[in-house]
Structure formats: structure tokens, C-alpha cells
Amino acid sequence: MTKNELIEKVAKKSNLTKRAAQDAVNAVFNLSRDALVRGEKVVITGFGTFLIRSRAARRGRNPQTGETIQIPQKKTPGFTAGKTLKRLIK
């Protein structure tokens, strides 16, 4: 499902105009993004948890030259599905 499809389904399901549904969906995404940027986790009960994961610094290899390189630590967004979602998909 794309973002546009989500907006259309929200508009239809909640009897909103497409513009109002777009504003609502964008607000949820923006608030979630802002919380993750601040380092907070976003818990949506029955769906899952969005959080920031840290990847440790490690050694890697340049495939073109075979040279060993140092890959720096970085943070990445992650998602863990909730129990309810896991049961529905199973």
C-alpha cells in the first residue's frame, strides 16, 4: 500500500475529505518522525514499536580493492511488530 492509497482509505473509512485525510496521515507520520529524531520510541498498541537502533563500529572490506576499512557507528530506524499484528499475519 502506498501513502496515497492509505490517504484514500482513511478518507473513505472516516468520511473525511481527501485533503483532511492527507493532513491527518501527514501529521501522524511527522509526529512519529520527530519523536524518533529526539531518540524516543513510538509505540502503537496492537501494531508495533518504532525505535532507533545503534549499529556498532566494525571492520569491513572494500570489495573492489580487498582493503580492510573501518565502518563507523551509526543509528538506524527499526520496527518491531506487536503481538496482535504477529498473530494476524501468522
Keywords:
90 residues, alpha+beta, 3-stranded antiparallel sheet, 43% helix
Based on Cα principal axes, name the global outline. elongated
* The CATH homologous superfamily: IHF-like DNA-binding proteins
Put simply, the count of helices is 3
Distance between the termini: 19 Å
Proportion of helical residues: 40-55%
What fraction strand?
Answer: 25-35%
CATH topology term = HU Protein, Chain A
Task: Report the CATH architecture.
Answer: Irregular
Classification by helices and strands: alpha+beta
State the order of secondary-structure elements, H for helix, E for strand: HHEEEEEH
Concise summary:
The chain is an alpha+beta fold and 90 residues long. It has helices at residues 3-14, 18-37, 83-89, and strands at residues 42-44, 48-55, 58-61, 68-71, 74-81.
Write the layout of secondary structure elements.
Blueprint: H1 3-14, H2 18-37, E1 42-44, E2 48-55, E3 58-61, E4 68-71, E5 74-81, H3 83-89
Antiparallel strand pairs: 1-2, 2-5, 3-4
Helix pairs in contact: 1-2
Structure description:
Keywords: DNA condensation, DNA-binding. Belongs to the bacterial histone-like protein family. InterPro entries: Hist_DNA-bd (IPR000119), Histone-like_DNA-bd_CS (IPR020816), IHF-like_DNA-bd_dom_sf (IPR010992). It comes from Candidatus Daviesbacteria bacterium RIFCSPHIGHO2_12_FULL_37_11. One of its GO terms (molecular function) is structural constituent of chromatin. This protein is an alpha+beta fold and 90 residues long. The protein has one domain: HU Protein, Chain A (Irregular), CATH 4.10.520. The protein has three helices and five strands. Strands 1-2-5 form a three-stranded antiparallel β-sheet. Strands 3-4 form a two-stranded antiparallel ribbon. A hairpin with a 3-residue loop joins β1 (42-44) and β2 (48-55). α1 (3-14) crosses α2. It is elongated. The protein starts with a helix and ends with a helix. The mean pLDDT is 95.
